[in-house]
Write a structure and sequence with these properties.
The protein has 331 residues and is of the alpha/beta class. It has 9 helices and 15 strands. It has helices at 44-50, 121-143, 161-172, 187-193, 226-234, 259-264, 278-291, 294-300, 309-317, and strands spanning 3-10, 16-23, 33-41, 67-75, 85-89, 104-107, 112-114, 153-155, 177-181, 197-200, 217-222, 236-244, 267-270, 301-305, 324-328. Helix 1 packs across helix 9, helix 2 (121-143) packs across helix 3 and helix 2 crosses helix 7 (278-291). The radius of gyration is 20 Å and the shape is globular. The protein binds NADPH dihydro-nicotinamide-adenine-dinucleotide phosphate. NADPH dihydro-nicotinamide-adenine-dinucleotide phosphate (NDP) binds at residues 43-44, 129-130, 133, 157-163, 181-183, 201, 223-224, 228, 245-249, 271-274, 316, 319, 321.
């Protein structure tokens, strides 16, 4: 039976166009599990893939959507049966194979995670790849000794997807959260999520040659990199860790020196959500269902439908999306 999908086509001159059209189950890639997709979301990579792909998409026509949550329609794998609620993030779904911007998706069973009990598909996509990554970052900081009461924890790119969830979870866990944003108009939103301090982005705008700065932060979830991460590393407390998840401000770590690592024992922890092993995914989703307050998640949600995606894809590439877009693919 036909179903609706956001399909990106490329013409002979290499120009791409994304539009909602009908697709067939026979168009879907191989995999053991057919999922009726309820919700998806919008990530930076989705912004790229709704457009010319930025080197991520291999073949056209293409259905983007790097994450989705839905209900199993049929399964050739004993781990899943019709009616099970599942979530998918990563594994390059929506990049190298058709993804979540369609009413149906077919994927390998290994790519799926069962939704925690009581978690809706809408809430799962309000969390999405961004929220899962925020949780993985917080787990990594905890594994390296972060505990409430040690001092303020910095979150950069705070009004974005990863940042919003990181602020809400850290505050709920009892941390004092300092939220860095370049959008002063988002201060109320961030304090509503639990931030106790708003730090203007400009405070990290300049590269310094200083080997170290005052010790300010007990931990950091960094979505920005660039000049900001170079400065933040020099401001970390003795033995503290930074979980680096993104590059919204550039791929280099500008002005970084070895001094924070060898004089203060600072740790830089790399976080990848795409190829994360299954056991860690399960642990992270279970922590999310425990440590992310649902009222704060609700406050982050911007609702959307399939036809809104071309506009939202362009907006996220410009850093203009706040919080978490939840796409109801059935609308
Ligand atoms: P969003 O676009 O939702 O948020 C990014 C935020 O970064 C913006 O909202 C803005 O926050 C801030 N920002 C944007 N541009 C700049 C800039 N030039 N300088 C400083 N700050 C800036 O994206 P996500 O939160 O979904 O993702 C954040 C990053 O993490 C992206 O680079 C993404 O590709 C990456 N990512 C990595 C994953 C992984 O597995 N490691 C998984 C998911 C995402 P504000 O307005 O508050 O300043």
């Amino acid at each position: 039976m036909g179903f609706r999908a956001l399909v990106v086509e490329r013409d002979d001159e290499g120009k791409t166009l994304a539009a909602v059209r009908m697709a067939e189950e026979s168009d879907l890639p191989a995999g053991e599990v057919l999922v009726r997709v309820d919700h998806s979301t919008v990530n930076y990579k989705d912004g790229l893939c709704i457009g010319p792909g930025g080197g991520l998409v291999r073949t056209y026509p293409h259905v983007p959507g790097i994450d989705f949550a839905g209900t199993v329609e049929s399964s050739d794998d004993p781990r899943y049966k019709a009616g099970d609620k599942v979530v998918l993030t990563g594994w390059r779904v929506g990049e190298t194979r058709w993804g979540g911007y369609a009413e149906k998706a077919r994927v390998p069973a290994d790519f799926l995670v069962p939704l925690p009990a009581g978690f809706s598909t809408r809430a799962a996509m309000a969390v999405g790849t961004a929220g899962l990554t925020a949780m993985l970052a917080i787990m990594a900081l905890e594994d390296h000794g972060l505990k409430p009461g040690q001092g303020p924890v910095l979150v950069t790119g705070a009004a974005g997807g990863v940042g919003s969830v990181a602020v809400a979870v850290l505050a709920h866990l009892g941390h004092e959260v300092a939220a860095v944003t370049g959008r002063p108009d988002q201060a109320d939103y961030l304090t509503g999520l639990g931030a106790s301090r708003i730090v203007p982005r400009e405070e990290f705008a300049e590269v310094t040659r200083k080997p170290l700065e005052s010790e300010l932060w007990a931990g950091c979830v960094d979505a920005v990199a660039g000049v900001m991460l170079g400065r933040v590393l020099k401001q970390m407390a003795y033995g503290a860790s930074v979980a680096a998840i993104g590059l919204a401000g550039g791929a280099a770590i500008e002005g970084a020196l070895i001094t924070p690592f060898i004089l203060r024992g600072v740790n830089l922890l790399g976080i990848d959500s795409v190829m994360q092993p299954y056991a860690n995914r399960l642990r992270a989703w279970s922590r999310i269902s425990r440590d992310l307050p649902m009222d704060r998640l609700e406050a982050m949600i911007v609702p959307a439908g399939l036809s809104d995606l071309p506009e939202l894809g362009a907006a996220i590439l410009k850093g203009q999306v706040r919080g978490r877009v939840v796409v109801d693919v059935r609308s």
